[in-house]
Amino acid sequence: MKFKEVSITSDGLNVEFSNGIKDCFPFLWLRDHCKDDVNWDERSSQRKLFTALIDPNIKVSNVKIIQDSDELEVKWPDMESAVLYSSKFLFQNSFGNSHVGNSLEVWDNIKISKNTIEIDYSSLNKSSGFEGLLKIIKTFGFSVINNCPKDMSSVEFIANKIGYVRNSIFGGLWSFESNSDMADSAYTQEELRPHTDGTYNHDAPGLQLLLCCDYDAQGGESIMVDGLKIAEEIQKNNKGCYNFLSEVDIPGRYYGDGVELLAKRPVFRLNKQKEIIQVSFNNYDRADFRLPNDQISNFYSSIRTFDKIANDKSMQWRKILEPGQLLIFDNWRILHGRSEFSGKRRMSGCYINKEDFESACRMYGIN
């Protein structure tokens, strides 16, 4: 990316990039984002400049494009030396680059069956292999890693490649199989309908890893459903239901093991741009709560609509994991479930924070 043209106006710097994108950068914003040694600590990536002391009416004294370069040289009246701004930095902060979309692809059974979501454990030792894993998860919300060591070491290795193991009420690294003594639906052999984990956490687990260590059973298919696809279908066919599920807070609760955890949020959590940033649905852990009487019918109707789509096999990816296969998925996007089974099915796993996955993606330039 290069600069094509730049000019000073009364409002800021008008910049045109080599790809034709144009934007006007306000003087005050530019002064606050000086990346020179006086204003910016390169070692710590922290601002030195005390923003509140900038003259709110400051203007650029002079500007020029450095020939055969991707930098602008800007002279400020309150600084002795000129400051350089790269085209990459300004373009990344331009409103005009909205055409550079992210890599998310919503999917149903037909679409996901046409894409490669599996990767080999051995490839993760290479930067290109690990980047490939991040791209698959970012794009489709989940991946299957084959040929993993059938013990906790592979779970820990993958978690530490991305960030670090998240501690929770279940511990850090955990292993489980059907156990009637445990007070949680995950320990039964019964069907687990698609859901997300941690609806009772204010900051729900970001990614979940599930490794099949031992399988001598009948049934027990792992189920993945794209929560963004569910949202897409509901928004297209039932706008009222979509609005309800994105506006009404639904509480989740975990009670046991000496704790009572409680949090609440909508099924579709939106940002200020009305984009979905989290899908949160778990009927098992939904807490008791009461809505006004005129909303009760809408609530149960919306839950039925969501649950019907989530349990439609045409919306699902299903697979019986073999020993050495690890399923990793974005718990803020993907609902997971399991068909009923009989026999022995032993799993190991852990959680990772959402922010650590996002950090790993940024380090590899993955939008």
Structure commentary:
By secondary structure, the chain is of the alpha+beta class. The chain has two domains: 3-99, NE0471 N-terminal domain-like (2-Layer Sandwich); 109-363, Double-stranded beta-helix, CATH 3.60.130.10. The chain contains nine helices and 22 strands. A six-stranded mixed sheet has the order 9-10-20-13-22-11. Helix 6 crosses helix 8 and helix 7 (239-247) packs across helix 8. The radius of gyration is 25 Å and the shape is globular.
Indicate the CATH class of the largest domain. Alpha Beta
Tell me the CATH superfamily of the largest domain. Clavaminate synthase-like
Number of domains: 2
> Strand content of the residues, in percent?
25-35%
The appropriate CATH architecture of the largest domain is: 4-Layer Sandwich
Query: Which structural class best describes the helix and strand composition?
Result: alpha+beta
Task: Give a brief description.
The protein is an alpha+beta fold and 367 residues long. The protein has helices at 27-32, 87-92, 109-113, 127-140, 152-162, 227-237, 239-247, 293-310, 354-363, and strands at 3-8, 12-17, 22-26, 40-41, 46-47, 62-65, 71-75, 83-86, 118-120, 142-146, 174-176, 192-195, 207-219, 222-226, 250-256, 259-265, 268-270, 276-279, 316-319, 326-330, 334-338, 341-352.
